[in-house]
Write a structure and sequence with these properties.
Chain lengths: ~230, ~220
């Protein structure tokens, strides 16, 4: 059967598409920043002295990594509402994404922390640095620099996964696409446009991470080599 | 569980079965295509390699949900009637093929070059080299990450609920619509996914350890 592609119809909805892309981007950036904080905190707890804290983080990481994001989103949005903790769709989306990506970040950063040679910790202790100072100046910077590429990929995946929040009516790119396609019946074109938008957004995310990385890691900026 | 009737539980378990079935379909389809992609990426002529690379980048840069919508809403627009199950299986297979293709390419390239050179010196042709020398070694390297990726496949089948395929999440939504007990229903579903994925995760990690020891 012949089928003529007609991109004009869905493209008349471009203000909606732009708004959706902006929401997706905002959602991703907020979840990235908060999830990074949560993940680093959990990674520190995981590698720290307290066995109980390390075990608690272990349970959290395994629970999140072995269940689908969609179910996590439903639990946060529908499940918690039914026991009295209510969020709006956008807040619920961010909460679920942060909880999700925090677990992955924790695993990645933990690998980075464990890659710091023991002798550097011992040297720092010999200089009478406090535990917080050792963490802040000796352990975390090289740990995070080393896993930066892995973190970048993880947060690009997070941006793509934010499309799943359309299932709880967050008005992001995919939800906008669903509405446009049910208005115009131009499903192929609509989803192709949106796929292209996601590709562009993932390039933007990679660029952002590259920029932040070269700002945060002066060694890499000067030498241009991975650690 | 207190609030679910046996019928509802049974319905949920049937969804659980479909989740497993869809995972297997996606793994079979995506694995077959991914294997071809990996071979093409390593051994094909340069233009083919570039095309395959673009395909992989394109799929990996698109959300799975969009791929599923494209197969489910897109194929009928092109005149093909598709039920939710084949549409989901197709969309997932395409998605899985891009990731497995990339994983397996790495495994093929991880086999030392000297192995292939030695095989070539023994006058084995390309097929013989592949089947008797490269693949057996590459498969050993590929097993842990492949098992690890199976976890992703199982979890990602949950998105098939968005195109109306009644797997576990969809079944849960339907039960929830009747009972209004989302917390219990979705936590139960999360538990069932965990029961499916956690053994795979542990297996993958154990395989990694085993592989490490062999090469230390």
């Amino acid at each position: 059967m012949r089928y003529d592609l007609d991109f004009a119809a869905p493209l008349t909805y471009w203000p909606g598409l732009m708004a959706g892309a902006a929401t997706t981007f905002g959602l991703s950036v907020s979840a990235t920043v908060l999830g990074f904080g949560l993940g680093v905190f959990c990674a520190i707890a995981r590698t720290g002295r307290s066995v109980a804290a390390a075990r608690a983080v272990g349970v959290y990481v395994e629970a999140i990594r072995n269940t689908p994001l969609l179910v996590q989103i439903f639990i946060v949005y529908f499940g918690l509402a039914s026991v009295g903790i209510k969020f709006g769709a956008f807040t619920a989306a961010i909460v679920a994404l942060v909880i999700n990506v925090g677990a992955y970040t924790a695993e990645i950063v933990r690998a980075g922390i464990e890659s710091v040679p023991r002798s550097q910790l011992e040297a720092a202790q010999c200089l009478a640095l406090s535990r917080w100072q050792v963490l802040r100046h000796v352990v975390l910077p090289p740990a995070i620099e080393r896993v930066w590429p892995a973190l970048t990929s993880q947060y690009v995946l997070l941006m793509l996964a934010s499309s799943i929040t359309s299932q709880i009516s967050t008005e992001e790119l995919t939800a906008v696409a669903n509405r446009i396609q049910s208005d115009t019946f131009r499903s192929v074109e609509t989803y192709l446009i949106v796929a292209a938008a996601y590709l562009a957004l993932s390039l933007v995310m990679r660029l952002l991470f590259w920029a932040v990385g070269s700002m945060a890691f002066p060694r890499r900026r000067r030498l241009g080599t991975p650690l | 569980m207190i609030s679910l009737t046996p019928e509802q539980l049974l319905f949920l378990l049937r969804g659980f079965g479909w989740t497993i079935a869809l995972s297997l379909l996606a793994f079979a389809g995506g694995g077959a295509l991914g294997f071809v992609l990996a071979l093409a990426r390593v051994y094909a002529a340069r233009p083919v390699r570039t095309v395959v690379m673009l395909y992989i980048k394109l799929i990996q840069g698109t959300p799975l949900l969009i791929l599923l919508f494209l197969t489910y809403f897109g194929l009928p627009a092109l005149g093909l009637v598709v039920e939710p199950l084949p549409a989901a299986a197709l969309g997932l297979s395409v998605y899985v093929s891009a990731y497995l293709g990339e994983i397996w390419r790495g495994c093929l390239e991880a086999v030392p070059r000297t192995q292939e050179e030695a095989a070539a010196c023994l006058a084995l042709n390309w097929r013989q080299r592949l089947i008797h020398v490269i693949l057996p070694q590459a498969m050993k390297i590929a097993t842990p990450p492949t098992v690890g990726f199976m976890v992703q496949i199982v979890k990602n089948t949950s998105l098939a609920s968005a195109i109306g395929f009644v797997e576990m999440v969809r079944a849960g939504q339907m039960i929830n619509n009747a009972t209004f007990r989302p917390f219990i229903v979705f936590v139960l579903i999360a538990g069932l996914y965990f029961a499916l994925c956690y053994p795979l995760s542990v297996w993958s990690r154990r395989l990694e350890g085993k592989f490490d020891v062999a090469h230390r």
